[in-house]
Structure formats: C-alpha cells, structure tokens
Design goal:
Helix content is 22%, strand content 37%. Helix 2 packs across helix 3 and helix 2 (96-106) crosses helix 4 (140-152). The two termini are 41 Å apart. It is an alpha+beta fold and 400 residues long.
C-alpha cells in the first residue's frame, strides 16, 4: 500500500521570553515535539490521542503546512484539507455564502467546484436559513458545521481534523463520522484528533498516543486506549491502614485487607467490560457460615446494583489464614461515570454483620463504542443501560 504521510524526526521548539526580577527577560526553549517519526498509508484513518499540551495540535499544524518544524522532515503526498479550529479561514463580517467561497478557495477549491457543490454544502451544514447572514451572528456550532461542510466537499487526498467535532451536536457528529468513513472507502487518508474514545475506536484502524511531545505508542485502538487510560481508571485501596480506627483486631474475626476493581484483564474498566472485584481477606479465628455482599452506587449515591453470595447459595466455614475472594460481574451495563463500591461480610444479614465498609472504593467506568455507532451511551441516561432492538413495520407487515 502506498504511503500518504511520512514524518521523519519531527521536532518543534518555541522560544519564550521569561521576565526576570531585575526587569530583564531570559529566553528559554519550550519543546512541543521531540523526534516524532511515523507513516500513514493511503486510505488509512489514524487517530491521535494525548493529554492537553501533549503536542497533538502542533503536529497537525506541521502536517497542514501552517508551521514548519524546527528539525526533521514531513512529506504529504497529495492535497490536504485541514479543520483545526472553529471558524478557521472565515471572516466574521462576510455572510455564510461568501465565507463558503473564501474558505473553499483557501482549501484549494476552484470557484467552479464551489458553485457546483454550493447547495450540497449548505444542506450539509444546515444553515440555509442564515446563509446570507454575516457569520459573526452564527453560534460556534453553526460556524463549525459550515467549516466542516466545506472541508468535507473538498476532493482532498488527506483530511486532518482536530477536536473541533466536540462543538457539534450528536446528529452532526454522526454526519461528520459518516463523511470521514465514506472518504476512507474512496481512498482518502484521515488524521483524527479527538478525546471521544468511542468515535476514535469506531473510525480508526490505528491510534497514535503522544505524550510530552513524543510518540508513546502506536497500535490498535484497544491496545492504545487501555495503556493510555490505565493510570486513571481502575481502583485499588489498602484497607489495613484504617483497620484499627474502626475496631481492634480481636473484634474482627474476618478482616478485609485490600480491595481492587478492574476489567477482566486486570487493567482499566471500559463500558461493556466484565468487572473483576478482588478482595484480600485475613481470618484471625474460625468462623462458620461467612457470606459476602457488595453494593455499587453512583458517586451521587444512587443505587445501581447489589450482589450477595447468598443469592448463589454460597457461604464458607473459614479457618485462620489469608484468603483471596474474586467476584466476577458479567455483562455489566454501567454507564461511563464514577461509581462507588461498598463491601460487607456477615453470617446473618442485619443481625450478625462481621465487617462493613460503605463506599470504601471509587472506580471509573470509561466510555467505549459498545454499540458500534461511534458514540458512547452517556452517563445522563440514568444509572445503567438496557440493550434494545428497534423494528418499525408498516401495517401490512413490511419493514419500513
């Protein structure tokens, strides 16, 4: 497969003047990129992720020929359409129609091509009612739709899209993703920067993670996301530290000493994953008929679910020693938000509770493209989600 983009040792440094106590200034260099090298094939969609300030936007500006690298070389084969900021290439005093011609010209479209596609651009942007209104009166979302509509109808070989899609509503985001997906089928190469993990997972075949100006990892979306998010999403806590503050050791024949919540591979927890709850337990004296209970709630204290070993007719006679209890929650349909977990051991519920640890651990469920639509099911839906099938038929039995 032919190469569409080749970056070799890209580095970018900016000189910054820092005021000194004596009134003078000192020049220092800030490195936005350091020795970045990669290749993108024709027709590939490469996602780019990283924290704010990691160097993503600087890289896109170099690839778009807006700025030059301090060192290194980049080669882009073919024409480029870039959408890096809302309203880029638009004049606030000009109407939407005039800005279509201006923006199209800046992106390399001929006047003939713009006239030919004008109606399609206006329809895609959904601004027909305001097309002859100066865009200084447009909302940021309207400006975005218009700018993307122009870029989407440009017959460019390479499209570079920054996080601007976050401004649009869900319907427009879906339209944009479809345009990028259709462009890929037609052989267009796309670089897509977004914090929307579901959109990147749905659209991109590979993902590049940039950290502090360097490439940290390139791989499949699942490989990169799990490593990229691993440090922030799973929960673990040691319970030994505050044991004495609750009871003396002799008061607790069964003691929880540590607790962790993770995905089934031991890393972060994505929407739709099975959940593993690992509990380390110290038994200091023989106890008969021990049962365990866990409860999950939202960070706002809305109950989500509760599970007891008695639901499955499980209880244990425990001799002194160390134990590890693993609870696997299958087909969990938690929404992408922060949750809390409470933990209990008992022999008779409400009368013989051995240890109770309410809200002992917080854990984060991260969004994922669980339905394959490019959009996650968001936390504002409630506390959980239920798979559904929508089938509309006419009264004669035919599918609509």
């Amino acid at each position: 497969m032919n190469t569409a983009i080749r970056a070799e040792g890209l580095s970018k440094a900016y000189t910054i003047r820092v005021p000194q106590p004596d009134g003078s200034t000192r020049r220092i260099q800030k490195h936005a990129l350091r020795d970045v090298s990669f290749e993108v094939s024709e027709g590939e969609v490469l996602g780019i992720v990283g924290r704010n300030g990691a160097g993503k936007s600087t890289l896109l500006k170099i690839l778009s020929r807006i700025t030059a690298p301090t060192r290194g070389r980049v080669t882009v084969y073919g024409s480029v359409a870039s959408l890096l900021e809302v309203g880029t290439g638009m004049h606030p005093e000009m109407t939407g129609r005039e800005n279509i011609f201006l923006n199209g010209a800046l992106l390399g479209m001929s006047k003939k091509d713009i006239v030919k596609q004008l109606d399609e651009i206006v329809e895609f942007a959904g601004v027909a009612e305001y097309i002859d209104t100066p865009i200084k009166r447009y909302s940021s979302g309207m400006k975005l739709r218009l700018a993307f509509a122009v870029a989407a109808h440009l017959s460019a070989d390479v499209m570079i899209v920054d996080e601007v899609l976050a401004v649009g509503d869900a319907e427009f985001q879906a339209k944009c993703l479809n345009v990028m997906r259709d462009g890929t089928k037609a052989g267009r190469t796309t670089l897509f920067v977004s914090h929307n993990m579901a959109a990147v997972e749905n659209l991109c075949s590979r993902v590049m993670w940039i950290e502090e100006g360097r490439i940290s990892k390139i791989g499949t979306p699942e490989e990169v996301f799990r490593e990229y998010l691993a440090g922030t999403a799973s929960g673990k806590v040691s319970l030994d530290t505050d044991l004495q503050a609750i009871h003396t050791v002799s008061d607790l024949p069964v003691q929880f000493t540590s607790l962790s919540v993770s995905g089934t591979d031991g890393s972060i927890l994505l929407q739709g994953d099975d959940i593993l709850i690992d509990i380390e337990i110290r038994v200091v004296q023989r106890v008969l008929g021990v049962k365990f209970f866990v409860r999950i709630s939202t960070i706002e204290n809305y109950p989500v679910a509760a599970m007891s070993s008695t639901d499955y007719l499980r209880e244990w006679d425990l001799d002194p020693g160390m134990y590890k209890l693993t609870i696997k929650l299958s087909s969990v349909r938690l929404l992408p938000r922060m949750h809390k977990l409470s933990l209990y051991s008992y022999t008779q519920w409400n009368s013989e509770i051995i240890e109770e640890r309410p809200d002992i651990l917080k854990f984060q469920v991260l969004e994922s493209d669980i339905l394959g639509t490019g959009r996650p099911i968001r936390a504002d839906r409630g506390v959980t989600w239920i798979p559904a099938d929508f089938d509309l038929k006419q009264s004669n039995g035919k599918s609509a």
